[in-house]
Design a protein that fits this description.
With about 300 residues, the chain is of the alpha/beta class. It contains 13 helices and eleven strands. The radius of gyration is 20 Å and the shape is globular.
Amino acid sequence: MSKPLVSIIIPNYNKGKYIRESIESALNQTYKPIEVIVVDDGSTDNSKEIIISYKKRIKSYFLPHKNANVARNFGFRKSSGEYVQFLDSDDIILPEKIQKQVNKFDHLSNDYGIVYASFEMRSRDGNEKKEFKAIYRGDVHRIILKRNVCGHLTALLSRESFEKAKMYDETLLSAQDWDLWIRISKFYKFDYISEVLAVHYVGAHQISSDVRRKIKSREKILRKYYDEISYYPDIISAHYYRLANLYVVDNNYPMARKNFLNSLKWKPLQKNSYWQLLATFIMPKRIKKYIENRAILHIGKHKLYD
């Protein structure tokens, strides 16, 4: 019996400095058969030169610049794999990742759509790192409505689950993986490999450190799934509380107060919302520092907002 093909799709925009390492991590998978598809999103650096140097070892496509989700969806349409891995062009997957996840799928029923894994977040100089453990399996929809628990680069998706979820939302510039997991988890269960199988590198100018994009994307997710999220008072309260924190970090205290109040509307016994709301009036600089120190992930000099 032939083994299922796995498609590894790498969107790229101006990551010429790092893309070779990402492509090599895909090509060096112990699992076969794989196809590696690189979709360049209108890069203006030396990315094209590096991509074409791989010749027939990969499939490559060059698009006018739009965004990463457009590139991901384009790559999927050009793919043939029964399973799909999306890999950003500045991250890497470890050699046995695909093999271990396909083996896991082999022992799961058809109602499982994703196998993900633990991963390591690492600064480029290698001096700072943090491990994120995969801990949720089965029906994870309610958990994912509240927060993203699946590292984007760790997920191996069944083709069927991605198609049923209608692929990536091309209007989202951040939290696109979270949005996708919400839709997939409506129909499919998740499982995981507990060991670290991927490395996400933190750079100075990446989207995950852009607080305003995070605010816009979280607000869009809240609007998009409001009817479902609002069914659970604790979940919608958590969304408003997180938005309030992000607005504090962005120095937008009127919007922070509005979201603290919304959080309290849904969960009146939320103590953190009360005192942080008050703090925005009497000690705004101190509450901002507190949130940045307690509620924001730091990897070296980089601040990461979820």
